[in-house]
């Protein structure tokens, strides 16, 4: 820690140290001041190391720091949602790691703990201990609550529906059933490996736009760095602007630079994909899904399977054409789910769906199509904005200056491109419900299909814009206490939208629906059967 802490503080010290050396003219005195700053950072690291302790006391983890004022952070063990272990390059070289505790607080530091500098063996031991305690205590609490509810409802076992008859909320009974004796003291479950990424699949890196645009991001970052730190290193901003103007005045050099960047895109994409997803492994152990990956920084993320409520399958245009995709878990109480919830990186679609199907459940098929009015809206939104720009710039280019063609030509091209884009967006729309899980899909440049368990739905939002009201459409959003917080079926018919929501949670909506419940498509009638939703008609709320 006396080595890693000062090096971690180096970026924040770089500018002050450079300023001291430049202002002092690289004199012996300036080097003395710079050396004192380095020694001070080492001393600060030593004090932080000496004054920090951690211990498990009863049902909580206590992190104590007494640097200037004493502070004690307490984390209840039953609140722990996951424990992540990461090892940056220097940590890996020294045989230490960073252990982070996720409590699902949602913020950067709220109710979360971090142990930076524990040995790899200690990190793995602590991870096992914390997850075991959290799982065991939660299981005992859920079992006790379920047993008490069942005992209290024994007298009403013959009345009402299954849930009302038992007197036990469905979610409580599901949690009690899922928290079996395997969580009790001394009991273990075998580890199961779902997926280990082959090295040859690193070639899928260029199919992801985020990795493919890395060369341009590096160039933009270098230019921004030159403008921000140029004065510290006595680089005049006018020199940077002059270099840019000189390159612009020499088109062959500019074209060569662009060609090199384009040629470097797939190579750097493969490198970046390998850096983040090297030896990606997904396995299950002791009630947790554990994903490990990384070449430079190795990271292991644990997701409590009892809190997994579904998954999201994502694919872009190039990925769809190549038959690949990605998947994220939808987990309740998970902070930073966009990165920590990743189940599969870019990989063949069939493999991704097979692995996710084994770990969580199969993807929903047979999505219900949306009305033709939704196709018109998709086309309008993809074409109309560019037509407006073209309508304004083409007359200007013909009447005033040819400079306006620089805007008119791309606008016309994008308007033409909007036709296949709008049609693809319409084909991507869909929703369905199979009795236990609902699924919604939308998007083209980033087509996403979310599959969510019914028990995860905590509310509904039915919304209409002015244009949707004119087209007889609405958007139905299922509120979910997991993932992004809500998943929307976009541009559903006015009849199908409320029927879809009532089909998933009939008791929440049927009191507010007219006409009579037996006549509403997709909603259980008096006999308990469901009718298939049909298009047309109206379903007022």
Automatic annotation (TrEMBL):
Residues 152-185 are annotated as: Disordered. Keywords: Membrane, Transmembrane, Transmembrane helix. Residues 49-128, 426-496 form the YdbS-like PH domain. It comes from the Bacteria. The chain crosses the membrane at residues 7-25, 31-50, 201-227, 253-276, 379-398, 404-423. PANTHER family: UPF0699 TRANSMEMBRANE PROTEIN YDBS, UPF0699 TRANSMEMBRANE PROTEIN YDBT. This is PH domain-containing protein. It comes from Streptosporangium oxazolinicum.
């Amino acid at each position: 820690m006396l080595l890693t802490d000062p090096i971690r503080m180096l970026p924040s010290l770089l500018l002050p140290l450079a300023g001291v050396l430049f202002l002092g003219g690289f004199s012996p005195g300036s080097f003395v001041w710079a050396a004192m700053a380095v020694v001070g950072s080492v001393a600060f690291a030593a004090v932080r190391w000496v004054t920090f302790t951690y211990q498990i006391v009863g049902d909580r983890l206590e992190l104590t720091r007494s640097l200037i004022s004493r502070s004690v952070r307490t984390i209840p063990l039953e609140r722990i949602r996951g424990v992540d272990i990461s090892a940056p390059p220097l940590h890996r070289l020294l045989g230490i790691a960073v252990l982070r505790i996720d409590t699902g607080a949602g913020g950067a530091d709220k109710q979360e703990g971090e142990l930076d500098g524990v040995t790899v063996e200690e990190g793995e031991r602590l991870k096992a201990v914390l997850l075991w305690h959290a799982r065991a205590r939660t299981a005992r609490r859920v079992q006790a609550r379920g047993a008490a509810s069942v005992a209290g409802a024994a007298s009403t076992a013959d009345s009402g529906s299954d849930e009302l008859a038992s007197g036990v909320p469905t979610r409580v009974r599901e949690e009690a059933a899922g928290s079996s004796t395997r969580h009790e003291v001394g009991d273990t479950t075998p580890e199961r490996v779902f997926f280990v990424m082959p090295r040859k699949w690193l070639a899928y890196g260029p199919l992801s736009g985020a990795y493919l645009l890395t060369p341009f991001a590096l160039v933009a970052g270098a230019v921004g760095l030159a403008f921000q730190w140029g004065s510290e290193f006595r680089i005049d901003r006018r020199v940077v602007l002059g270099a840019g103007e000189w390159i612009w005045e020499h088109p062959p050099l500019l074209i060569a630079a662009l060609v090199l960047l384009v040629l470097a895109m797939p190579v750097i994409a493969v490198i970046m994909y390998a850096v983040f997803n090297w030896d990606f492994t997904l396995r299950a152990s002791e009630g947790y899904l554990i994903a490990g990956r990384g070449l430079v920084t190795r990271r292991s993320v644990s997701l409590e399977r009892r809190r997994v409520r579904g998954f999201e399958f994502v694919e872009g245009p190039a990925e769809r054409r190549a038959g690949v995709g990605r998947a994220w878990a939808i987990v309740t109480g998970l902070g930073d789910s966009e990165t920590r919830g990743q189940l599969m990186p870019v990989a063949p679609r069939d493999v991704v769906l097979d692995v996710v199907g084994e770990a969580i459940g199969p993807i929903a098929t047979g999505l219900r199509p949306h009305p033709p009015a939704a196709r018109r809206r998709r086309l309008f939104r993809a074409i109309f904005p560019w037509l407006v720009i073209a309508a304004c710039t083409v007359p200007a280019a013909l009447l005033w200056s040819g400079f306006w063609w620089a805007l008119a030509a791309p606008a016309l091209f994008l308007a033409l491109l909007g036709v296949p884009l709008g049609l693809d967006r319409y084909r991507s729309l869909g929703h369905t419900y199979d009795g236990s899980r609902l699924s919604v899909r939308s998007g083209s440049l980033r087509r996403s299909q979310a599959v969510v368990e019914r028990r995860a739905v905590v509310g509904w939002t039915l919304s209409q814009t002015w244009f949707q009201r004119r087209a007889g459409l609405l958007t139905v959003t299922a509120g979910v206490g997991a993932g992004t917080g809500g998943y929307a079926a976009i541009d559903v018919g006015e009849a199908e939208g409320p029927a879809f929501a009532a089909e998933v949670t009939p008791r929440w909506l049927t009191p507010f629906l007219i006409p009579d419940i037996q006549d509403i498509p997709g909603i259980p009638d008096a006999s308990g059967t469901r009718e298939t939703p049909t298009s047309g008609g109206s379903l007022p709320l």
